[in-house]
Structures are given as C-alpha cells and as structure tokens.
Amino acid sequence: MALTLDDVTRIAHLARIDVSAAEAAEVHSRMGGIFTLIEQMRAVDTNGVEPMSHAQDLDLRTRDDIVTATDEHTSYQSIAPQVEADLYLVPKVIE
Q1: How crowded is residue 8: how many other Cβ atoms within 10 Å of its Cβ?
Q2: Which long-range contacts (CB under 8 A, 24 or more apart) does 82-88 make?
Q3: Distance (Å, whole) CA 33 – CA 31
Q4: 88 with 82: CB under 8 angstroms?
Q5: Which of 7, 22, 75, 86 has the most CB within a 10 Å radius?
Q6: What is the pLDDT of residues 49-72, one digit of tens each?
Q7: What are 1-46's pLDDT values in tens digits?
Q8: Do 24 and 8 contact (CB within 8 A), yes or no?
Q9: What phi and psi values does residue 84 have, to the nearest 5 degrees?
Q10: How far apart are CA 36 and CA 51, in angstroms?
C-alpha cells in the first residue's frame, strides 16, 4: 500500500493533530517502513499453520467450577427498609 505525504497530513487533520511538514515527513517515512514489514509478512506462506492463542504451548491451570458462596439474600433483605417479592423497594425519585 502506497502512502503519500498528502495522506499523512490528511489523516493528521482528520485526527485533529497539528503536525509540521518535518513531522509529517518523519511519520511518512516510519509508516512506509511499517507497510513494508506488513507486505513481507503477507508474503510468508502460512498454509497448514494452525492458529495459536499464545506463542508458547501453555497449559493453563484450571479449577472446577463449583459454587462456594452461600445464599445470604434473606439476611441482607432482613435489614432493608422495604422488601416485596424478594425485591428491594426504593422511593420514587423521578416524577
């Protein structure tokens, strides 16, 4: 992908970034290097390569999904000012 100096200044304008001509030229040079690297990576044959979630083959330690918390809603609601059908009642604040 070819990126021109005008493209860089236009993108900077759209992003509301004030860049000088020298800064735009520097960004243009760096972006050109990035696009060159992207083209080199696209040229690599990746057919038959399995997608990976991590660069290293890791086994994550997992635990059983067991509920350890107890149901305390009745004790919590016992101190609430108003409760109805297991719901907390609050005063109306918007008319």
Answers
A1: 21
A2: none
A3: 5
A4: yes
A5: 7
A6: 888 888 888 777 888 889 889 999
A7: 688 999 999 999 999 999 999 999 999 999 999 999 999 999 999 9
A8: yes
A9: -145, 125
A10: 24
Rounded Cα distance between 37 and 31, Å, is: 10
Q: Which structure tokens are listed for 54?
A: 């991590």
- pTM recorded for the entire structure: 0.48
For the chain, the distance separating the N- and C-terminal CA atoms, rounded to the nearest angstrom, is 58
- Please, is 11 exposed, middle or buried when counting C-beta atoms within 10 Å of its C-beta (0-12, 13-18, 19+)? middle
Tokens of 41: 């990576």
- 42/36 Cα distance (integer angstroms): 10
Looking at the chain, list the stretches that DSSP marks H as alpha helix, in order from N- to C-terminal side: 5-14, 21-42, 73-78
